[in-house]
Amino acid sequence: MDYSKKSPIATLSLFLLTLILILFSWNPLTYKLTSFPQKHSSNTTILISVPKDELQIALDKASLPNKTLIIAIINKAYVEPHENEYPTMFDLFLEGFWAGEETRPLVNNLLVVAMDETAYQRCLFRRLNCYRLVADGGDEFSGEKIYMSGEFIEMMWRRTLFLLDVLKRGYNFIFTDTDVLWLRNPFKRLINNETIDFELSTDVFNGNSSSKDNLINTGFYFIKSNNKTISLFETWYDKRKNSTGMKEQDVLANLVLKGVFGQLGLKTSFLDTIYFSGFCSDSKDVRLVATVHANCCRTIRAKVEDLKTVLRDWKRFKNRERTSTVDGTNRFRWSRHVSCIKSWHNETLH
After folding, report:
1. Residue 17 and residue 12: Cα distance in Å, rounded?
2. Are the C-beta atoms of 93 and 181 separated by less than 8 Å?
3. Which residues, 6 or more positions from 246, have their beta carbon under 8 angstroms from its beta carbon?
4. Which positions ≥6 away from 9 have C-beta within 8 Å?
């Protein structure tokens, strides 16, 4: 008998054994999948699994069951100390969650988006929910971008494009700059109304939350994902082509004034600075303030100095509130934002 050729039965047995080994060694848990229902004429539903990308995984991890989360975007300039002096901007941002009222649990719903590898590694070290946003040019957004410089404007548009992607994936979110201190849970101050699509902070509030004459600020806002808000962000991002030298906030302000929000059927509320304040317009009531934004300021160094002062003011107020039997609210005054005021007059910026 010629044993140099395998019999058909032996070949078939070897094939079946190999197939069994493959099936038992495959672990479906190593694949991150999501399922979408597909309807068929038989009225049965078949689940088709497709792989999740890294952003989808990060969004799912940070979001609440209703697909709502908090998003902050950082780069190296926000996580590295200026001239080796701590704290950094990112340190102060996180300290606000620690020192604020009912804000610590919100860190679990915070997604930190890093625009370079240094920022991403710092985020991971903090054990936060982190996502690495890769720019076309690598780490081109890693350093400090001086306000209204060409690189600053480009970085703001890249941010807008990313947030459009998040909306398209069906997520609602608060977007917050990292120069915003969260002193109280802002969700409690947002309008609990299903008809409102977009709640946008202001540099100066004119007293009317529906007025398009409010001076807006895109450093803090709450937006819901729907066809109207997606259309807004698409329109907004497309306008960059004809808006040379304009930052994305100014382009959005023009859309407000031209009535684009109304044309899209968008329901918007402009946030009162008594609750969502900033250096442009301090909150007049420390008992109500939820966030403090270091707006009307030109450099990170100046923002850091004045935000440290805001935290000291806040802790001083909270300590007085705990230890004094007399209401000291009427005597409370925010310190002047000295460094930010000076930042507009310095010819050489570091």
Report:
1. 9
2. yes
3. 153
4. none
Handedness of CA 208, 209, 211, 214 (dihedral sign): positive
Amino acid at 10: A
Question: Could you give the CA distance from residue 131 to residue 54 in angstroms, rounded to a whole number?
Answer: 8
Would you say the pTM of this structure is higher than 0.90? Answer: no
Reference 203, options 284, 293, 117, 116; nearest CA is 293
Segments in 29-149 forming alpha helices (H): 54-62, 76-79, 89-99, 117-125
Cα separation, 233 vs 239, in Å, equals 10
Residue 240 has pLDDT above 70, yes or no: yes
- Report the interhelical angle of 248-257 vs 150-168 (nearest 10°): 60
Packing angle of the helix pair 89-99, 300-323 (nearest 10 deg):
20
Cα separation of 113 and 55, whole Å? 10
Give the per-residue SS3 of 272-297: CCCCEEECCCCCCCCCCCCEEECCCC
Q: How far is CA 169 from the centre of its chain?
A: 15
Asked if 64 contacts 109 with a C-beta cutoff of 8 angstroms, the reply is yes
**pLDDT at residue 169 tops 50:** yes
Read off the tokens for 163: 């947030």
Model confidence at 33: pLDDT above 60:
no
Q: What is the dihedral of CA 340, 244, 154, 341, to 10 degrees?
A: 0
Query: Which one is predicted more confidently, 158 or 324?
Result: 158
Residue 286: partners with Cβ closer than 8 Å, 6 or more residues away = 314, 317, 329, 332, 334
In the structure encoding, which two tokens stand for residue 295, read together? 């707006």
Does residue 22 have a pLDDT over 50?
Answer: no
Q: How many CB atoms lie within 10 A of CB 77?
A: 21
